Amino acid sequence: MNDKVFAKPIKKQFEFDEEVAAVFDDMLERSVPFYKESQKITEFFALKNLNENGRVYDLGCSTASTLLNIHRKLSTNAELIGLDNSEAMLQRARQKCEAYGADIEVCNADILEYDYKEADVFISNYTLQFIRPLVREELVKKIAAALQKEGAFIFSEKVISHHPKLNKELIECYYDFKKEQGYSEYEIMQKREALENVLVPYSEEENIKMALNAGFSHCEVLLRWANFATFIALK
């Protein structure tokens, strides 16, 4: 189903409700530059760091697309767990997992409060940016504590530049991309207003510093296009 969520006047802040869940896969592919490439690189490094009988958590798993792609390529026994606090998203995730016969556990959970078991890999695609900055690093510390030694945390985020001119141009570049995907100027502005104070991005440097402060030994960018980046942090 095509994303037309912001083609009409919006009277509330952005939320992952049924209307968004119904078009979310299309929204991601048309709103996130090189989304498929980011997914592929996430899957590659997740599988590289996953041991026999290991465990993967996907935080903010939405419709479980990432875990389903990992499941298709599994060559070992592993436990795949997706967490999200949107029941609308999880309903679609369950339907997709059932349709593909995939043994994936998806749970309605608060990722800040969840009691994580030891894991090989954590994934977080465009989720940290929705966590309040005051508690964001605490979540990353919790992730680091739950990872096995040499475990990996792969996360994608919208990023900003602290250089005002460059940041403005990054946003302009991104809006040109969205127009090429068929979004109107009106839809772009509507979504920007709906996300105001809901999505709070960090810079590339701030994300790396946060990971290192949380206990990871190394963090770097795997893929970046303008103001979108995929990172890997190693314990």
UniProtKB/TrEMBL annotation:
It catalyses: prephenate + S-adenosyl-L-methionine = carboxy-S-adenosyl-L-methionine + 3-phenylpyruvate + H2O. Residues 56-151 form the Methyltransferase domain. SUPFAM superfamilies: S-adenosyl-L-methionine-dependent methyltransferases (SSF53335). GO terms for biological process: methylation; tRNA wobble uridine modification. It comes from the Bacteria. S-adenosyl-L-methionine binds at residues 35, 60-62, 84-85, 110-111, 125, 192. Pfam families: Methyltransf_25. InterPro entries: CmoA, Methyltransf_25, SAM-dependent_MTases_sf. GO terms for molecular function: carboxyl- or carbamoyltransferase activity; methyltransferase activity; S-adenosyl-L-methionine binding. Its EC number is 2.1.3.-. Keywords: Methyltransferase, S-adenosyl-L-methionine, Transferase. Belongs to the class I-like SAM-binding methyltransferase superfamily. Cx-SAM synthase family. Catalyzes the conversion of S-adenosyl-L-methionine (SAM) to carboxy-S-adenosyl-L-methionine (Cx-SAM). PANTHER family: CARBOXY-S-ADENOSYL-L-METHIONINE SYNTHASE, TRANS-ACONITATE 2-METHYLTRANSFERASE-RELATED. This is Carboxy-S-adenosyl-L-methionine synthase. It comes from Sulfurimonas autotrophica (strain ATCC BAA-671 / DSM 16294 / JCM 11897 / OK10).
